[in-house]
Design a protein that fits this description.
Strand content: 5-15%
Number of domains: 2
Order of helices and strands: EHEHHEHHEEHEEHHHHHHHEEHHHHHH
CATH topology of the largest domain: Fumarase C, Chain A, domain 2
CATH superfamily of the largest domain: Fumarase/aspartase (Central domain)
CATH architecture of the largest domain: Up-down Bundle
């Protein structure tokens, strides 16, 4: 079983993927980290005993920052923040996203600047280890002061409230705790605020969609290469000399990937002075896919930093003599993630746009020079063939343009105008998920159409060979979807190709022949 030790400094992108997708993974606190956690919790206890005025510990929250809380009510204050802030709506997060959020929140608290107790944090880890997953609505967070509503729903089971999924059933958290031999706790000073005030929701959803984006881009490389072959395109546009004089690294990489996928192909055309270049959707694959690679890498970079960042407020620090101090700031603000995820959404939308244009060229005989029959079907008219698949791709590409409107350019002031600028990063993360889901279908449609077109080309020249990478991808597709002779139910085949993409089986075709993507 994988074992992940949390210390606030060492959590990796792949660690989160492991815990999100593998319920057998064990999560525990690093022993050295426990000392830092305890030191901060002791400092909070000391602030309370001294009667110091500290935001969120001996004061209210947000616009209530100037309301002093009596010492005997500081624990009730932390209980109240959970019950009052758990007001999310909409569909619940799926299991991987919920697990990722719990892990990321636990890790940032393990850094030892938040004032939570070891026992509280260990209970959060125990929920992960027992597979107790809070029901967390996906809507309601502004992304500053962090993901308050989702994280409140996540933390409710710690105090015996809220609902969870456990052993495949929805149940009250107290029932799940009883079955797992766990006990709810009573929160101490600062703990409710520490649990809710941060960016774990948008970081978790953003991480998972970024990983999905990495896989979708590889699938798009394969689809683009297959369409190039299906349309008798020229490999000249992928000549390394072209890309070396415009040295964007990911453009160079994208061109090299296409060259490897089509290496040895007999489906591309040799130099033709009467047909020297292809349409942009083929010729400009390296430039477009390369720019999208940059956006995905940027999202990954931002998220990797966020995984080991302290994102609540206020924060506790210690000088070299061990003296504690507490500072209020704004690390809960999700702007770095919001902008990165908006950028990712724009990039994935563009990946869908160029894929849909290649599909349109495959089905339109006037665009492909009558190389292929209209809508990739025999007896056109009686049969509609791939006509409606392109409609679906167009509809999804259009929908993505709406979702890719930047969430981070919007802000609505809250909490009596104290919290007067928010990131809307959670919206950015959720929109990126919608776009990536649509993109998966758009790419599946292109792959189906390209395979169908390749078969028509083969009927005219049986001996033509595909490239070393596209041949593998073509075989995988044909293992799921036959050549379409006449109109038939298409959606089951589309679902199968989406599964090939979603499971990563298709992208293994690329990884098996190149080291350029590892």
């Amino acid at each position: 079983m994988p074992k992940i030790y949390l210390d606030g400094n060492s959590l990796t992108f792949d660690d989160v993927l492991t815990v999100a997708n593998d319920k057998s993974a064990i999560v525990c606190l690093d022993e050295k980290a426990k000392n830092h956690i305890k030191r901060a919790a002791d400092a909070v206890d000391d602030f309370v005993k001294k009667g110091e005025i500290v935001y969120g510990i001996t004061t209210g929250f947000g616009a209530f920052k100037d309301r002093i809380i009596p010492t005997d009510k500081v624990e009730l204050l932390q209980h109240n923040i959970l019950v009052s802030h758990a007001v999310g709506v909409g569909p619940a997060l799926d299991e991987p996203a919920t697990r990722a959020m719990m892990l990321i929140r636990a890790n940032t608290l393990a850094k030892g600047h938040s004032g939570i107790r070891v026992a509280t944090l260990e209970l959060l880890c125990a929920m992960l280890n027992h597979g107790i997953h809070p029901i967390v609505p996906s809507k309601g967070s502004l992304g500053a002061s962090g993901d308050l509503a989702p994280l409140a729903h996540m933390a409710l089971p710690l105090i015996g409230l809220g609902e969870v999924i456990y052993q495949g059933r929805k149940m009250p958290s107290v029932e799940a705790f009883s079955l797992a031999a766990l006990e709810p706790i009573k929160l101490a000073a600062k703990e409710g605020l520490a649990l809710t005030n941060g960016t774990a929701f948008m970081a978790a959803v953003g991480l998972l969609v970024t990983h999905q984006a990495e896989e979708l881009l590889l699938a798009a490389d394969i689809a683009g290469a297959m369409s190039l072959e299906a349309l008798n395109g020229t490999p000249r546009a992928f000549d390394p000399r072209i890309h070396e004089v415009r040295p964007h690294p990911r453009q160079i990489q994208s061109a090299a990937i296409i060259r490897e996928l089509i290496a040895g192909s007999e489906f591309t055309r040799e130099d033709d002075p009467l047909n020297v270049q292809d349409a942009y959707s083929l010729r400009c694959i390296p430039q477009v896919h390369g720019a999208i690679r940059d956006a995905i890498l940027y999202a990954r970079w931002v998220i990797e930093i966020e995984l080991n960042s302290v994102t609540d407020n206020p924060l506790i620090f210690f000088d070299t003599d061990g003296k504690s101090s507490i500072l209020s700031g704004g690390n809960f603000h999700g702007e770095p993630l919001a902008i990165a995820l908006d950028y990712l959404s724009i990039a994935l939308t563009e990946l869908g746009n160029i894929s849909e244009r290649r599909t349109a060229r495959l089905v339109d005989e006037s665009s492909n020079g009558q190389l292929l029959p209209a809508f990739l079907i025999k007896d056109g008219g009686l049969n509609s063939g791939f006509m409606l698949l392109q409609y679906t791709a167009a509809a999804l590409a259009s929908e993505n343009k709406v979702y890719s409107h930047p969430s981070s350019t919007d802000s609505i002031p809250c909490s009596a105008n104290i919290e007067d600028h928010v990131s809307m990063g959670p919206n950015a993360a959720c929109h990126a998920c919608e776009i990536s889901s649509n993109l998966e279908a758009i790419l599946a449609i292109e792959l189906m159409a390209a395979a169908q077109a390749i078969d028509f080309r083969k009927q005219n020249s049986q001996d033509l060979k595909l490239g070393k990478g596209t041949a593998i991808a073509y075989a995988l597709i044909r293992g799921q979807v036959p050549f379409i002779e006449k109109d038939t139910l298409m959606y089951p085949y589309l679902n199968k190709i989406q599964d090939l993409i979603r499971t990563g089986h298709l992208t293994q075709a690329l990884r098996s022949i190149t080291t350029l993507v590892n």
